[in-house]
Automatic annotation (TrEMBL):
Cofactor: binding comment: Binds 1 [2Fe-2S] cluster per subunit.
Annotated protein name in UniProt: NADH-quinone oxidoreductase
Domain named 4Fe-4S His(Cys)3-ligated-type: residues: 89-128
Chain's role: NDH-1 shuttles electrons from NADH, via FMN and iron-sulfur (Fe-S) centers, to quinones in the respiratory chain. Couples the redox reaction to proton translocation (for every two electrons transferred, four hydrogen ions are translocated across the cytoplasmic membrane), and thus conserves the redox energy in a proton gradient.
Key words of the record: 2Fe-2S, 4Fe-4S, Iron, Iron-sulfur, Metal-binding, NAD, Oxidoreductase, Quinone, Translocase
InterPro entries hit by this protein: 2Fe-2S_ferredoxin-like_sf, 2Fe-2S_ferredoxin-type, Mopterin_OxRdtase, Mopterin_OxRdtase_4Fe-4S_dom, NADH_UbQ_OxRdtase_75kDa_su_CS, NADH_UbQ_OxRdtase_ferredoxin, NADH_UbQ_OxRdtase_Gsu, NADH_UbQ_OxRdtase_Gsu_4Fe4S-bd
Top EC class of this enzyme: translocase
Keyword Iron-sulfur in annotation: yes
Amino acid sequence: MSDTFKLNIDGQEIEVPKHYTLMQACEEAGAEIPRFCYHERLSVAGNCRMCLVEWQGAPKPIASCAQIVGDMRPNQDGSAPIVRTGGAYVEKARNGVMEFLLINHPLDCPICDQGGECDLQDQAVAYGRSNSRFEENKRAVEDKYMGPLVKTIMTRCIQCTRCVRFVAEVAGVEEMGMISRGENAEITTYLEKSLTSELSGNVIDLCPVGALTSKPYAFNARPWELRKTSSIDVMDAMGAAIRIDAKGDAVMRILPELNEEVNEEWLSDKSRFVWDGLGRQRLDRPYIRENGKLRAATWGEAFEAVKAALAVGPDKTGIVAGDLIEVEQAKAALDLFRSLGVKNTDCRPAGAGYGTSGVREHYILNPTLMGVEEADALLLIGTNPRVEAAVWNARIRKSWLWGNLKVGLVGEAVDLTYPYEHLGTGPTDLGKLASSDFYKVLKDAKRPMIVVGERALVGPDCHDLSNFVRKLSQDVGVVTEGWAGFGVLHAAAGRVGALDVGFVPAEGGLATADILGGGLSTVILLGADEIDLSKLGNAKVIYVGSHGDAGASRADIVLPSAAYTEMTATYVNTEGRVQMTTRATQPKGEAREGWAIFRALSEVCGKPLPYDTADQLRALLRGKEGENTVFSGRGYAPGARGVTALSEPVPEVSSSLSSASFAAPAVDFYLTNPIARASKTMAECSALASRLDTPVAAE
């Protein structure tokens, strides 16, 4: 029996899979079907009826989004059913639907933030009347409170229920719904409380009218006033595709762009709303501390002060790279300090033991972010993807909801928005895994997946844990031909790129914990703020970064650098995908790109680096033509290429695993980096989240 079905659409005969909707079939034939409620990533609701088409022989117009092609019958003579997507019959039906949709819709277009990019405006131009025949009073709906991110003007709502389906199906937090019936129907949140999902901002993009808009962006700009720049997000290690909209020298908003392999078309709230932090607490000129206070200085003065601080010798100097460091800065800094003989360099958290083996597959997410949709069993170890990679967590939920994914967790028991088997909280529970039912699930799975969090690989027994997890991966068969199911989920955008350029201690060099332990005379922080600075004592601290955060507060010399929206720079995401940001605005004041700071400093130190432009630096990273370097390709994840490296024998675990629990994230989701901590919006979200941690009972 054939799995395809033939249709005659607008005189063109096509053959499509039987599971297609009639709307998909019409678009396959080249027709454009208007819609409000239908969205390809959400379940079908069939609410708006804007997608009506004519099926010859049917008693009334057909809602094409809800009609499955396989359920249609051929004509009496056996020929393909005839469908028309245009003509007087279809036009009249859509005109009637549009007239009903606009009965209560207010004339808010001049003051509506959706103006200029509104689906309802576009369809009203095509199918609307020049006047209304409705004479009764328009209904008004009270606006709802949805938190500090989503602004509501619910009188504009057309009850398409996209937002309701999104929070239930994708975000996994059922906090929105429709109440009442008929003309009294309205969308509301549960008990009119704030949305608690890390993905709540996506309802703004989904809303086809101006009912749900961005609260921080309200009345700031019109879409046609904005410069639109495609770039990459750095708020987590996923590297989501984003569009930065800027006006003048300020970023006005950040929106997701389509990238099926990384973020589909979703974006976390932190990535979307952190933009106001780009203009606050900025370092826009060099500073030198004199008599206990920082004073503004010239670049020349600052470089001479850095040169003097480096005179203590390479053994007394250490460099720590932060979470947001770009590849170019890491490479330039490493080249300079290696030429000066400095071995104490590290980009990892204090106590980390990964990244020094030289085997890239040991510290990237080999099965890829998209690979979880192919997996049928997933073991999470010491990670909370809802906080560390919120959009990927939605993909895991998608695989559980629409596929047959079974999830196990060793770590803190939290709400991940999908059910899982809790197998323990720490390393010792991993040792007991072989006797659990989930071990059999992993063994029997065709494509099992084991993901260990970066936090789990930090601590005194990090090497033993790493070896144990890799051995476990081999035992359950996560590495097979064409499938590399073991991976590490990072939380910092700059981590993998810094590891790829070798920003780890040289032989005999000190790691992060020892650099910060107080034994060195000069410590250089490359945007490193999420670290313990309490033991540095009288060490001279040089801070290179974009925001006045913990590192700059402790610094004796401050060198201002550009933020990720102000430079074209390379990042490598957690799955090893080489990506690039694009400059959307100019750096603030006298700030410079990180690599340029170290190129200029190398001249002052008498060790000029062998590149004068960013392109020359990137050419060096890519290597000579034909060389297989990490940076020679861009935009793809290596994936199953790691099969060989992950199949190599693993050293035996030297001692019993720790009985302590895996550490929870040190800070909350909204305040993980200096840009987020400078954001007023993120501060509001953080304060609200801490209040909502207390359970609320309903009578």
